[in-house]
What does this fold into?
Amino acid sequence: MSGTEISFINDAFESNFVAPIGHQLDLFEEKVANYLGENCYCLALASGTAALHLGLIIAGVERESRVWISSMTFAGGIFPVAYQGGVPEFFDLDPSSWTISCDLLEERLFKAKKENRIPAAVVPTDLYGQGCDMDRLESLADQYGFKLIFDSAESLGAEFKRGRKCGTAGDASILSFNGNKIITTSGGGMLVSRSKDFIERARFLATQARDPAPHYQHSHIGYNYRLSNISAAIGVGQMTVLDDRVSARRAVFERYRQALDFRGVEFMPEPTGYRSSRWLTAAVFDPQIIGVDREQIRVALAREGIESRPLWKPMHLQPVFAGANYYGSGFDEMLFERGLCLPSGSDLTNDEQDEVIGIIKKTIGR
It folds into this structure.
């Protein structure tokens, strides 16, 4: 916590608005919209998954709709496709950025147009705090006519080229404020769009789709997806330290990178012009070069009570999506096999980080 949250929480209690309505909720949406710029509109919701679900509904995804999506992502970034009865098709990453391969997308879109099989939507994931190629993805969306929803759950505070903030592109973007993100509302998410109509339609669905009438009347299926005013108050306080948190995470990443600058150890790249939030420090360990594998390093850290975690297991390898179409060469599979997310908290001390670094060096014999 930043230390300022309690004053906003007290304001919420004093107003007697503890439900999903109130000044703090409006203020949180306003703070995020002002931070992102580009005339964005924001809708604060119970989770990033809820935000993606509403985004897909507004985008027209329904039963049998094809949705093209990054395979290396969190389950919450794909499950809403299943909620809608859509058909996910998974895509590999670009080794230069570790985000969805635009070359592969363009190649498949060219073939899909000939077959009249353009997807209803494409959902690229901003992986571990690094944004996708917004410009090229928006250009492809304009050219081929699909809806574009960015999963920016992990990248609030990151920037693409020209200082354009992640979370501002496409038809909509989704953010997450889960407890493990750079800033948190304990749980929560946000739907962001430059279209006011997109957000207002989502707002209607997020509040049980109640028709304007003195009684409760419903002509559409709605959802109870709004964020509470209390949680939003936490978010207002968290927004005051967002840039500081990003700077801290970037410093953690850079310290790891310099200390573990060995052949056989690689870190997530940052293409020219990008500015990742470095939400998590992701590293890849090549066992053929360093003599030990990712799992041996993870276990060595665990023995000392230090948690680390493999990179996301690609969705096309998950039992629940067995048989789904996958396009790529398996770069994401290699990242999962060899990759490890290291302790990356904004409050990680130098001594704590030195302990992690020391264990890794000892494990790989350096």
Notes: The domain at 5-239 is CATH 3.40.640.10 (Aspartate Aminotransferase; domain 2). Residues 49 and 211 are 25 Å apart (CA to CA).
